[in-house]
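I am still getting used to backbone structure tokens and would like to learn alongside you. Would you supply a protein for us yourself, any chain you care to pick? Start from the sequence, derive the backbone structure tokens from it, and show both lines together. Go ahead whenever you are ready, and we will take it from there.
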Amino acid sequence: MELMHAEFDIKPDLVLKVLSLEETELIRQQWIDTFCKNRKGISIKNYKWHIFSTEAYPSVSGSSAEEVYLSQQAPEFIVLSEHHESAIITSELPIECSSSDYYVFPKNLAWTMASTHENGWLGPYFAEHAQYEKLNKINLAGIAKAKAIAEAKSKGWC
């Protein structure tokens, strides 16, 4: 499947950066290296989320996935479309995306949400990194640090 060059939209629309082709490919490969290690016989060429639909990587699906996803926090989130060459970084957890197949995850890949064009039948899927607890603590510490910096700036300390 050929990738499209056009950007895609998310909601809330708080895009911090549109990644270059090179940055997107690096992120895409990191995602594959993290979540697709055990893909023997599973094709991820067209849809990387097949790693979850075939149960080769543990995940929760459907409304359970959405519930867990909406509780996630991180300083920033990456949105990687299956069919676009660019990924985006946002400061808010996306709740909508114009791409039909996409992945949301924090920079450290502590977890991922895979939204599919088959949502409701196959997907969405939520999966945790093997070191989720450790990585999620780092994300929460990053949020606390950002809040402390914002508070200091509001008081004129920085």
